[in-house]
Amino acid sequence: MKLENKKIAILATDGFEKSELFEPLNGLKKEGAEVHIISIKEGDIKSWDVDDWGESIAVDKLVKNANVADYDALVLPGGVINPDLLRVTEEALDFIRDFYNQEIPVAAICHAPWLLISAGIIENRTVTSYNSIKQDVINAGAHWEDKEVITDNGLITSRNPKDLPAFVAKIIEEITEGKKAN
Amino acid sequence: MKLENKKIAILATDGFEKSELFEPLNGLKKEGAEVHIISIKEGDIKSWDVDDWGESIAVDKLVKNANVADYDALVLPGGVINPDLLRVTEEALDFIRDFYNQEIPVAAICHAPWLLISAGIIENRTVTSYNSIKQDVINAGAHWEDKEVITDNGLITSRNPKDLPAFVAKIIEEITEGKKAN
């Protein structure tokens, strides 16, 4: 198992795309990682399953009680509603920014790069995203490419649920390689 | 009645914020306007009512069959899902752009300014929007202000459902004043 003794944070709230949380969660746990669901609300958060609400998952920790230094990576699932709610929450943006500042890998898929825009950490980075937000990503100063997964100095991005196998594999690779050379 | 013999297009698809379509629809019809629901799909489109799917409305015309010159204004409701679907549809963006090019008033509320970004018609304009997309709007080159309604040469924008009375009143005013001085 490649991720023994590794701890990974998944930051999400209601409206996260179901596959984009559960597939990384299961893939990373399978490699031995301890994975925490971090949110801005207590209790359960409700997924979005393609075109309607889907199954929920229990929150392990509120973002205000989570310590970035405890983790070896941050995963940001997409969904349209989830990042739209998180990006107006200053403590969520601070949390994301702290991973960046402490040079710990950050992985964002689908609509989650909106969070990288709001956290102010996407400028001059080479990334991908869901097609609908491509213009927002480019306008924020990023270099956008149409690839299943892109890594730029510890920042991992993918386009949509079809890219999940490549996305999860790249997260595992980045964590086992250690801290990013920012 | 202030809008007799006036025709107004509302462009939306599934996930439009319910109040942001129905309140302009009813307010504009009350002044005598003929209002058409234009979409990228036939049949009904389903609203989003604050935190879940809400009532549907019948589509009058597909965007590909609609003629911009027939209308005296275009209204773009928000919702998170609706503009995210429309902004990847080239014929929807062409439709919006044609209103702009023909100097016919365009009104966008909440998350609908994403459509103005994707249509490429927001640069150097003074606008407002829903708070979560403020950064996207600014990054697209617009001047963002925190007001219930802003008009800039025929481009009318508001922040959220609470602004609807001011938003609808301003649409009526812009139409009765005639074409914008672009």
Tell me briefly what this model is.
With 182 residues, chain A is an alpha/beta fold. Chain A has helices spanning 18-30, 81-86, 90-101, 113-118, 134-139, 164-176; strands at 7-11, 16-17, 34-39, 44-48, 53-58, 61-62, 73-76, 106-109, 126-127, 143-144, 150-152, 155-158. The first copy, chain A, has one domain: Rossmann fold (3-Layer(aba) Sandwich), CATH 3.40.50.880.
Can you walk through the features of this model?
Chain A is α/β, with parallel strands linked by helices and 182 residues long. Chain A has one domain: 3-Layer(aba) Sandwich (Rossmann fold), CATH 3.40.50. Chain A has 6 helices and 12 strands. Chain A has helices at residues 18-30, 81-86, 90-101, 113-118, 134-139, 164-176; strands spanning 7-11, 16-17, 34-39, 44-48, 53-58, 61-62, 73-76, 106-109, 126-127, 143-144, 150-152, 155-158. Chain A has a 7-stranded mixed β-sheet with strand order 6-3-1-7-8-12-11, with helices on both faces. In chain A, strands 2-4-5 form a 3-stranded mixed β-sheet. A two-stranded parallel ribbon of chain A has the order 9-10. In chain A, a hairpin with a 2-residue loop joins strand 11 and strand 12. The longest helix of chain A is centred in the first third of the chain and has 13 residues, at 18-30. The mean pLDDT of chain A is 96. At the A-B interface, helix 2, helix 4 and helix 5 of A face helix 2, helix 4 and helix 5 of B.
